[in-house]
Write a structure and sequence with these properties.
By secondary structure, the protein is of the alpha/beta class. It contains 14 helices and ten strands. Strand 8, helix 11 and strand 9 form a beta-alpha-beta unit.
Length: 366
């Protein structure tokens, strides 16, 4: 099997792949270090939300390192560049003033931080998902890799996360709990932007669309399952229907960190095919329980601990953990091994390579 066939077999669960596929993303520092080691120049595709850049860049490098996947996404419009009000700062297309933090670009001034009414949201300009040039890089990489690699279209910060970044998390959560009318309008405007990006990716022929919002914390969900079902479930269901209408074969990946077991059944109901990142060591997310309960209806993507194991573990400990996850989640297929999120600079190059080599070693189906 080539990489595309391997991932399709695993994620569709219609046949057992030759081995467990692997996918990973690297922060800028690790990308540059591996670029030098492999002598492969890196092309960065700048996203409409800065940190997604590292999902949708360096495909030449990551495939050379062993990834079975290529990730593409919506970029900035052709000829557009961010305003830079001060060194290290940008104003993105949504109007967020952002500044480089220790790991990620941080929103330091949300554009709707004073929003109180529906009109405040309606008056705020949103970017055009159909702007010229937004998919120039995506088209190039889809054409380059579509026959040999599993191509993922990235659509993270789908509704919830983009919305709270526009308002500020504390205000957004309080206003959502208080039932402020503008919240629903904001969610709908963000949803429509995501539908525009996602439908174009699906129509371009990606194998999967990687949607997601982080609804989980270390000990439970950030909002109640009821609030999620009232506000987010129907909007995600609409988005997934639109993606399937644009490409009936596209697989739906849903990313949400943390302890989200109360809504997994709902995610399956509205069309999710693949759950990511399957965060370990949080309540309700034990791999054997997930596989037993959902493994006939859901595939799993992730499950390798990035909070402690990858930055602090030894290569031997990483190999042992990968072997355990493959034994449980990979039984009969239905699993792609990966770190939880983009691998950060606190993880050594040695441990990144240990993760990849462990999947190749332990992931072969007899």
């Amino acid at each position: 099997m080539n990489s595309k066939e391997r991932v399709l077999a695993a994620m569709r669960r219609d046949r057992t792949p030759d081995c467990v596929p692997v996918q990973f993303d690297l922060c800028r520092q690790l990308t540059e270090e591996f670029s030098q080691k492999y002598n492969i120049p890196v092309h960065y595709t700048t996203s409409y939300y800065e940190d997604i850049t590292y999902r949708i860049s360096a495909n030449e490098l990551k495939t050379a390192m062993g990834s079975d996947c290529v990730v593409v996404g919506g970029s900035l419009p052709r000829g557009y560049s961010h305003p830079t009000p001060a060194p290290g700062q940008i104003i993105n297309e949504f109007g967020m003033l952002m500044e480089q933090g220790p790991l990620y670009m941080q929103t330091i001034e949300p554009p709707l931080r004073h929003a109180e009414t529906i009109q405040d949201v309606l008056d705020h300009p949103f970017p055009d998902p159909y702007a010229d040039g937004r998919f120039d890089d995506a088209k190039k990489y889809i054409e380059m890799y579509k026959d040999d690699y599993f191509v993922i279209g990235d659509l993270e910060l789908t509704i919830y996360e983009m919305s709270w970044h526009m308002v500020g998390m504390e205000k957004f959560m309080l206003d959502m709990a208080l039932g402020e009318e503008y919240i629903a309008v904001l969610l709908d405007r963000v949803k429509e932007f995501s539908i525009g990006i996602g439908k174009q990716l699906a129509a371009l022929g990606v194998d999967a669309v990687w949607t997601g919002d982080d609804f989980g914390g270390q000990n439970g969900m950030l909002i109640s399952p009821k609030m999620w079902r009232d506000l987010f479930k129907p909007r995600h269901a609409e988005l997934f229907r639109e993606l399937k209408a644009a490409n009936p074969d596209v697989l739906i990946i849903y990313h949400t960190d943390g302890a989200v077991s109360p809504i997994i059944e709902d995610l399956i109901e509205i069309g999710v095919d693949i759950l990511n990142p399957v965060q370990p060591n949080v309540p309700g997310m034990a791999p054997h329980e997930l596989k037993a309960k959902f493994g006939d209806r859901l595939s799993f993507f992730g499950a390798i601990d990035q909070q402690d194991l990858l930055p602090n573990g030894t290569p031997e400990e990483i190999s042992a953990d990968v072997a355990d996850k493959i034994e449980v989640l990979g039984a009969g297929g239905g699993y792609m091994c990966s770190s939880g999120v983009i691998i950060q600079a606190d993880t050594s190059m040695e441990n990144v390579e240990a993760l990849i080599s462990a999947v190749k070693k332990h992931g072969v189906y007899s």
